[in-house]
Amino acid sequence: MSNPIYLAVDLPRLDAAVALGQKVKGHVGGLKLGLEFFCAHGHHGVHEMAKIGLPIFMDLKLHDIPNTVAAAMQSIHVLQPAIVTIHAAGGRAMMEDAKAAAGESCKVVAVTVLTSLDDADLARVGVAGSSHDQVLRLTDLAQEAGLDGIVCSGHEVGEVHRRWKNGYFVVPGLRPAEGKGAALGDQKRAVTPRAARDAGASCLVIGRPISRAEDPVAAARAIEATL
Ligand SMILES: O=c1ccn([C@@H]2O[C@H](COP(=O)(O)O)[C@@H](O)[C@H]2O)c(=O)[nH]1
């Protein structure tokens, strides 16, 4: 089994991001770069991170009209990301056009319900019903649109896996059971990496429990040992 952990490199400085990526190489399966990284460092930053030699996950969470998202996908094609995220709430046509614009080797996965939201948060933005039901609704839409998979929390991934056998399921919002890395921060639908893996996650996104650890390599190894 290849290492399913993608480290969320949510650091503002490029030199620190490169140093962290180099340090954990061999202990994670890939590097996830978010919107804040891309806004700060652009294509140059992605090239620098790619030199480390791990697959690059561009977590841009694109959400706009179909034409705009497709154009953005074409612009990042040259960076050869392994995975790119878009928002399922952008609708079926947007997802279809994003997938059509992505390269053959790039997985396009749709964010369903952010792991920082719970049912009460969803109600406040006008989504009636549970986050669980909303994840399943958007999962079905992403599958119909021909995407490779979705992003959801470890609470839903088991049911998602039962509905979509060969999908690719990205699970962030992961926390080790104990220790400093167990602090939830802004995550509201968290589970342990092992629970997410057992439920059918293909890709485990982990940030602060590794990046903010005193020894990121030891933290990554400890998490991998639980899988
Ligand atoms: O629903 C989502 C989608 C993406 N994320 C991203 O994952 C990491 C999680 O970082 P932690 O430090 O492990 O909490 C972060 O980059 C988010 O932007 C998510 O958390 N939830």
Automatic annotation (TrEMBL):
Matches recorded under CDD domains: OMP_decarboxylase_like
Coiled-coil residues: none
Catalytic activity from the UniProt record: orotidine 5'-phosphate + H(+) = UMP + CO2
GO molecular function: orotidine-5'-phosphate decarboxylase activity
Keywords: Decarboxylase, Lyase, Pyrimidine biosynthesis
Cell membrane in keyword set: no
Boundaries of every Orotidine 5'-phosphate decarboxylase domain copy: 4-223
Pathway: Pyrimidine metabolism; UMP biosynthesis via de novo pathway; UMP from orotate: step 2/2
Keyword Ribosomal protein belongs to the record: no
Entry-linked InterPro entries: Aldolase_TIM, OMPdecase, OMPdecase_AS, OMPdeCOase_dom, RibuloseP-bd_barrel
Pfam families associated with the record: OMPdecase
PROSITE patterns, alphabetized: OMPDECASE (PS00156)
Enzyme class, first EC level, given as a word: lyase
EC number: 4.1.1.23
Classification via PANTHER family: OROTIDINE 5'-PHOSPHATE DECARBOXYLASE
Stated family: Belongs to the OMP decarboxylase family.
Primary role: Catalyzes the decarboxylation of orotidine 5'-monophosphate (OMP) to uridine 5'-monophosphate (UMP).
Name of the molecule in the record: Orotidine 5'-phosphate decarboxylase
Protein source organism: Novosphingobium pokkalii
Gene: pyrF
